[in-house]
């Protein structure tokens, strides 16, 4: 049964008739009747006020008894139930997400621990012209800052990320050092390293250090390097030949012309 309340008041008898299906409606009607009298118990409302209120209550009762109103009430109840279930699912997903994120953080810290020394060594060999020092440290987020990210730092206690203090050439050296450290600690069965134009933004000192390191640290791997400058390619070829390592320069422009012809 749909809850409904009817409040009737007259000037002569001050009577009320309240359908007590709802405690809220009963309290409202009681308030309505009490508020209609002043301190001397004289009625301060007129027939027009009562007529308007009765019209309003009549419309409310009709709405409650209508099929569309009942359908909307049912729909609201169903939506509330769906919302309750969604909240439970959100709690479950949040818990799963926390486990997932914790595992990622643990994996990042494990990787950082294993590649920290190779990264420092390789970056020291490549970035020999930095006045702050050669090696780069890999800093992982602290316990109180689990939302942070790994960062490259010039010193162990430096709060500034190297990405914000280095030139483009130095950053290229850091990226290459990181890639080589990952390859050294976690080698692949392919035994091949491909680097696209590694010395494009390097100066001569860093380039020489890079070639020297590649000759001795990764002599057992097949190295594919690309460059836009023929003199750089000739320098690489010369350094590898001097170390008794095989080197095969390939001019892609000539290869393209051979294919066309």
Termini, distance in Å?
Answer: 92 Å
Helix content: 55-70%
Q: How many strand segments? A: 4
* Widest sheet, order of strands: 1-2
Mean pLDDT: 76
What's the Cα radius of gyration? Answer: 40 Å
- Specify the biggest β-sheet: 2 strands, antiparallel
Unreliable stretches, pLDDT < 50, 5 or more residues? 1-24
Return the string of H and E elements. HHHEEHEHEHH
Using the alpha-carbon principal axes, give the shape: elongated
Beta content comes to 5-15%
Our count of helices gives 7
Helix- and strand-based class? mainly alpha
Describe this structure in words.
The chain is mainly α. The chain is 56% helix and 6% strand. α3 packs across α4 (168-185). Mean pLDDT is 76; it is low at 1-24.
Descriptors for this entry?
261 residues, mainly alpha, two-stranded antiparallel ribbon, two-stranded parallel ribbon, 7 helices, 4 strands, 56% helix, 6% strand, disordered N terminus
